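Lab meeting notes turned into a lecture example. A postdoc, R.K., suggested we walk through two folding results consecutively so the class can see how the record format repeats. The first protein's sequence and structure tokens come next.
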Amino acid sequence: MDQFANRKIYVGIFILLIGLIFTFRLLYLQVIDSTYKLSAESNSRRLEIVYPARGLIYDRNNLLIVHNQPSYDLKISPFELEAFDSTELCEILNVDIQTLRDAIYRVKKYERERRNPFIKQLSPETFGKLKEKQYKFPGFYFSERTLRKYNYEIASHLLGYIGEVDSSIIKKDSYYELGDYYGVSGVESTYENFLKGEKGRRYKLIDVRGKEQGTYREGRYDSDAEMGKNITLTIDAELQQYAEKLMKNFEGSVVAIEPSTGEVLALVSAPFYNPSLLVGRVRQENYEALKKDSLEPLFNNATMALYPPGSTFKTANALVALQEGVIRPTSSFGCTLGYYARGVSMKCHSHKQPLELVEAITNSCNAYFAHTYKRTIDNQNFETTEDAYNAWRDMILSFGFGEPLGIDLPSEKAGFIPKSSYYDRYYGKGYWKAHTIISNAIGQGEILTTPLQIANFAATIANRGYYITPHVVKDIEGVDTLSREFMQKNWMKPDTSYINYIIDGMDGAVNGEGGTAHIAHLKDIVICGKTGTAQNPHGTDHSVFMAFAPKENPRIAISVYVEYGEWGATYGAPIASLLIEKYLTDTIAPNRKWVETRMLNSKPTNKKEDEKKY
């Protein structure tokens, strides 16, 4: 008997414990934790995403460049569908009946399809017609979004464009869902996390048939969308607009930088396209057309095209040679229409000779810089040619060549300053000397740079020896400071005391007797510049020019590349001078209107096959 009594006690205690566990669990679920409460009620509510407007984009003078316009997607709620005139709806939407049937079938069968639009980005005309007759089509409703709108249809490569996310983007960032949009290129891409904003949520109460019955829980779980942060660019919209006007008939680029800050004042890649082409329902169609265009308007020449720097590079070689002590400012070399030695032939134009350094820069003497480069690479202070070359390369890299500068735009190219191992592979270790690679003396050979790097080098000279990493965003709403890299000075390795000889030579090139860029001369502004001709193995050479102004306290540094323009003074120098004049004086002097007219009406052509970008 005692044995059975004990069993009853144990069973009773067990049942009591189970009861207490269930009681406390039920109390927790109903009173304390609301998660399961919401889950249990999920069948009586519908979530609607409220999409935020993207941040606005201004230029450095607070001119509004990019803003937003309303756009509407048409969605289908399968539970609210009732009989409707499908023919009339198809006529309004300009779709066939089978497309409509397929859409209805999908939203009825697949839960995820209910959140995807039936038709994205209705035109204002279509939206207006359908909104007026929406009562005739139960189960069809609108979801509001915004599209980009451009007050100034400029800077397409800098601004970038918006596109629909794919599965790879969704995997990287849980913020995005199918049907969302994000910045694909340009500033829209780099600053996506600031521009995109935060989505809001609206929960709607629905009945057992799926029909909307009002706000769920009086909006307790709703949240408002938060607009993206506004961004102020460094570019001057009017200068950018004028640069694009001057480059409308050309292929190439313009990059203008404020030397003291590294702020990009204008960035043009020609040919360019109207950024409005990549907005709305026509975006994909226009994108495919631009992608197939043989002139490659989607390619950003300013940051991605690689060209030989031509004679602009002579100034860099001069600084290295001065630092290594292989020449002095007073060193002079003769030039009999070129440089000829040990089977090497390098032609030059007619000018007085012999020349010292400043005059050699002014006259862009090939022979002078061939002698200079030979002394640098065959420098007896180093044990081997390789050691001398590596020392030269190390100083060249300090000018911002051979590596990405780090501009806040995607896909910047590094350029190419070969390592000594590159020449070892081609010629054999110990079997190459200065004459083997003498083309580097005048910015040809294997050397490749981007237009951005040349403009940055002009800024380095203007700053008397340093540059600040170029950047295109000046201010972000609510962010105190930009990245530290956009504020620190990057000093060149050669002694800055040598820079004045380079500046005087560039002054002479524009303003002195025999200067190669006299067409860039302005009456009241001292421009310091250097012409270049970038050899093109596929046809006519490219016109290159870099400059800064004024000579004292410079406010703008610039590079201009005109493909197939042949001589730096033909197109590069006049375009740069017009942009400098426009930026510093806000006008073009009457006596220089002929230069503007010639640039606007010119169109160089390639005399051989079209060149492909590197």
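The second example is placed directly after the first for contrast:
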Amino acid sequence: MRNLFLLALLFTFLNSNCQENQYPTTKKVSVIDTFYKDFIIKDEYRWLEDIDNIEVRNWINSQNKLSKKELKKGSTKNKAFNTIDKYFDTKYTTPIKKGKYYFTYAYYDNLGVPALFYKAKINQRLKLLIDPNFISSKDKIRIKGYWVSKNSEYLSYQFNRNGSDWTEIKIVNLDTKKELKDHLINIKFSNIVWKENGFFYSKYPKLDKFSPTFGEKIFYHKIGTNQSEDKLIFERKNHQTQFKYTVTSDERFFILKEINEKSGKINIFYIDYASPNADLKPLLMNLSDNLNIVESRNGKLIATTNLNSNNNYVIELNPMEPYNLKVLIPEYEKAILLDIKPLKEKIIAIYQYNQRPIIIVYDYNRNPLYTLELPIATSVSGFYGNFNDNELIFYFTSYTIPPIVYKLDINDYERTLIQNPYATFDSDNIEYTEIEYYSKDSTKVPMFLIHNNDIKLDGNNPTILKAYGGFGSIVQPHFDPGIVYFLNKGGVIAYANVRGGGDNGYSWHQDGRGENKQNSFDDFISAAEYLIQNKYTNPNKLAITGGSNGGLVVGASAIQRPDLFKLAVPVVGVFDMLRFEKFTVGNFHIDEFGTVSDSTDFVNLLSYSPLHNVKENINYPGMLIITSENDERVPPFHSYKFAAKLQNRAAQKNPILLKTIKRAGHNGSVGLFNNVRETAQFYGYIYEYLTNKE
């Protein structure tokens, strides 16, 4: 009788455990790839790459049904939506000056997407210019950017549908607010730069949804003509080449930068429209280091570069003697140059060190005229205005401070407050701490921590560890009401500036790319160990998250050290490192990760690819894997396959949830209500999972 009771008890436990993690049925269809004769790779979930297959769509819907239930429960139980909605204190973005107008995105209802407004003076009322809600009744429209002609008569704007990277371009007359008939389609990853009565743009051939992106061409579109009449400016029949281009503010120079993504070499061409023969000519060729021309002054070009240097600095060059470079602003050993704003008599330089911004104004004789240092984990952006302006608009923000807008007088450097959103929480109670910790190879890695002043650091605090760590990207803080919510629930936020990013200069990126990619994961894992050893948290209270390349960092770290984490939340992550280069922009990132066509790269990719390192006998941390159905940077089937492999193992007891955001792309959902809901579900679920006693 006693044995029957124990057997019934065991059956009840097993059945409840199955019910708790009852995933949609995922079939296994074995596909075999052979690499270099000795490497036999089995891919049982490749069928999930066929996203238009009805079976795949049903599987996604079933996964969403399961994850929605859990996310809603965590958000509702912890009152995340109402709290975070209150912290979304403004419906306006910061004003930007382009030409003679000020522009801003704004919501005029809770359900729509942001519209574009404008005004002639900073203290005037905003006028509606472009409402994306009227572009389409069936698609989610998002304005991706806008550009103003030199005479401020026309504005061209670019928009996408349902999060796609494919965009369209239209033009509006700023004097009459009437839209022109011009309508350009099949645009992708395009900048727009005006020149006289038209603009330059670029496009790619439009193939299948997730086909490799190649074949970029640059065109010039003249106002009032059909797209079929646009003039081809440049093309290179090499699928691993990308272009960046600009026109200087005086419209004298067109600058084209060609980047070979395989070799890393850079070619720069230019057109001088003041010359008798205004043709495209080579300026600097076969560069190994980056050089970015941003402006012209007195017939000379102003650029930032890291030529023979770890950090960027500012130079001036004469197109007639392009290799005779003059240094305008020298390199700083530690501070990273983020951006410059050249003006008629001065240059504004924006630096950052471990997410601590520094603004320095120089004259053209290398003399510093003004310096402004700001606190850790803040950022400044903007300095919007024209080349001859005496006043510029910039804004200051942090993870817990909504953007505060200032006007800067560049003659006396007086700052005037323009926009200060009302904070609905006590930001003075929030403490930022800057630390350094040692990684696996004894490299010092910077990290900062955020928590409320009154928190008790006893090793039992729910904690979220974040990182990005790729492409030399330098993380700049932006306001996140979800972080404020999590801090006020007694949580800790940590951000590790791991190798692969650019926070410590060019070498910091090199030490976390290609064959050195494992350093990014080691740095992230060491950050978790530091937080545990120093009593900020413990493995049962630690969650990790990151997006895109940060999703790879999170996925790889969770697979390599499952003992350290309670929950992993990778967002639009790269998980199949053996097939990433076959889709969308993966071929552009061979310089960052490597390629399976090289045997050394292949072995390295296989060593950390999250999908290929899942072990059958390990119960990995709980995971919330988030992707978007129209993500054309990191196709969503990276997440589908990763989730399927984790779920379909007897050893996996911790829940593995997959959430696919509909009608959304790499940057997630669009719209005020959607943003609040997604943020509330994200932080509400993490908090619930880290604090649930059951």
